[in-house]
C-alpha cells in the first residue's frame, strides 16, 4: 500500500475583481431621530424632548428600553402605575399578570442595566400617547409617528430588556440549580463511548436533560410576550436583548475570564439555529449508536422527536427571523402572533420598514380597514424600496391574493438567499420603472407598472441557471419559484423548490398550457422581468432575481372593464396614461433567481444568456 499523500487540490482560479473596493448599500432606515418622550426613572416623570434631543435640560441622555406585553390583560379595577407628566391614563393590568409595583421594579431593573446604568428608560405607556376617550388629534398623530420610529428608538437605546412578567428565574431552573442549555446536550453528543453500558448511561442522562431543556424552553415560548405581534418586531429590532424576570436576570454561570453570563435573546436565537442544524441529520448520535452496542432505540427516538417538536415551535414563534435588514421575515411571522384588532397586523410590524401608515384607514368593517392598510403599506414600500417589495413568495394556498404584486403576511421569505439583498451587500435595481399606478375614477384600481428588460420564460430556462437546494439549505436553490396558489392550481400541489431541472422545465410547459393556450401576441407569452442584482464588490459572483409574469386568466374580463375614466390613470412618477383599454392584464406568478460567475474582468452581465428584450406591462 502506498503511503504517499494525495496531491493537493487545484488552486482556485484568480479573482478578477479582487482589487475592487467593497461597497454596501443604504440601510432601509437611517437612525437620526430621538424619541418624542423619555421616562426619567427616579422621578417616574415622562419628559417631551426639546429641540432635537434635549430632555429636562439634559442633552442626548443615554437610555435603555423595556419590551413587554400588556394589551390582553387590562383590568380597570386594578391600580395603575403612577407616571407624571403625561396626558393619557396609564392602563390598569390584572394583578396576576403584573402589579403596578412589579412593573415599577421592572422599569428600575431595566434602568440599572447590565453593562451601563441609565437614568432614563423608553417604555411605551410612558412615552407613547395611549388611545383613550377624548384623545386629541395631536396625540393620535404623535402615536402614529412614534410607532413608525420604533427602529430608531430601539436602535438608539444602550441596552434592551425583555420582561417576562409573572415569571421568576426559579420557574425555569426548578430543581436543577441552573438552566439546562443546548450546550449541555452537545456535551453528551460529543462524548465518545466504548461500551453498551456507557452508551446506555449516557443516553439515559441525555434523555433526562433533554426533557428538562425542552420544558424550560417551552415555558419561555409559551409566555404571552412570545405571542404578541407588537413584541415580534421588538425581538427583531434588538435580538441581543437581555431576558428579565420578576426577580432579575437569569445567570448562566461564569466564562473563562470569571465574568458572569446571563440569558439573552441572542443566546436563545443562537440555540435555535444550532438545534435546527443538528436536526438536519442524525449524525450527532453516531458516537452513541455504534454497531454491536445493545442500546434502547426508543431513547434516541424520543430525544429526536422532543427536539424536533421544540425546533418547530421555535420557528413558529419567530426565533429564526432574519435581521432587521430584511424585515420581510418579521412581517411573515406576524400571522402567528396575537393582536387586539386586525389593523394591528399592519401597525404592529411596519415600523421595521421605517414606514408610517394612515392613522385612520377607510373602511366599513375590520377587514376592509385591514385591506386599506395593506394597500397603503404596499404603496409606500414600492416607493421606498421597489425591489424589496417583490422579494417574497405568496403562500395563500389555493386562494388567489387580492393583488398579485402586494406582499401580505401570508408570504414565504425565510430563505436566507434573500439576505443577499440587504444593505450589507451592493445591490442594483435593474428595471427602469417600478411604480404604483392608481385609477383616478370612482372604482379604485391599483397596479404595478414595470418598464425594463426580460426574457421569455421557456427561453431562459433552457440555459444553465438551475441549481437544486440541499437539505436544510434552501438558500442554495437557483431557478423558478412559483407563488403557492399558482403551483397548487397549475401543477396540482405546492412546490417551493424543484428537485431537478427536468421537473422545472416540465412545470414551465404546464404554465404555458395553462396561461397561453389558444392565445396570440403578447398574451401568448410568459415573461421573466429583470428586477435586481446583488454582489460583494470584490467577489466575482452576482445574484440575480426577476419577476415571473403571465397574462392573467382574467385578462379579457379585466381589460374590458379598465378604461380609467375621463382622467385616465396616474402613476408614482406623475405620468398620465391615456384613456384607452389595456390589451393584456398581467399577473405576477412567481420569481426567478440565479447566480452568475465572472472569471474575466470585462464580462458583461448575462454573458451566458440571450440578450434581454425591452418589456413594459401593468401588473395586477
From TrEMBL:
Pro residues bias (residue ranges): 1-16
InterPro entries: HET, HetReg/Transcr_Mod
Protein name from the UniProt record: Heterokaryon incompatibility domain-containing protein
Region (Disordered): 1-22
Domain Heterokaryon incompatibility, chain residue ranges per copy: 63-234
